[in-house]
Every structure is written in structure tokens, then in C-alpha cells.
Amino acid sequence: MSFTEHVFKTLFNEPNFLGESLLKYCFVGEGRGCYSNFKVNPSFKERKELREEFAGDFLGEVFEDEELDSIHVFRNSKEDITLAWHWDGDGHLIFIFGKIQIENTDIKKEYTWEFINQ
User: Largest CB tally within 10 Å, which of 26, 35, 59, 99?
Assistant: First the structure.
């Protein structure tokens, strides 16, 4: 286990704290990221080629290719953070930070974050 993983497993074992911290770092506009604010921190670069990797999480196993346009993926390689979201009336957001994956399936709520790889 890396030191970063150790820190997050011991100090930041609360998914709501980690999710909200990532949300505030990654979205820089007014309002709640992926709900009323879609302005991503400029250190992140859009990665459309990664949308298919998240399609199963957001769209299920069967989807139309044009539905991929509803998935947005951004990556900050220096920080090792990937964020992906899908909007269908409710924002569904996934963060990957190193080996840690966390998601919120109803982003307007700050208390519904869950780890998805533990």
C-alpha cells in the first residue's frame, strides 16, 4: 500500500469528505459541480477518448454510441485525478484519484458519496 492510500484509508475514510473535497477542487465556477456548475479546473484536460471506459457505470451494459456524448471525462495527469460525469436530470460523478475510486449518483446531495473499489 502506498503512503497516499494509507493516508486516505486512515484519515479520509469518510467518502463524503473526500468526494466533497475533490468536487471543490475540480470544479471552479459558482454552484455545485456537475449540477449547476460545469466549469472544470483548467489544470484538467478533456479526454473524450476515455468516455467508453465509463459507459458501463453511467449507461449500463447496452447503449447507443451517440449516448457517449452525454459522458464527460477530464484528467489531471500531474495530480493523478480523473473525473467523469453523466447528466440525465441527475448528475452522476466519478472520481479516480490514484487507485481510489469514489462516486456520487445524485450529485446535488453532498452525503451520497461511496467508495467503489474497496
Answer: 26
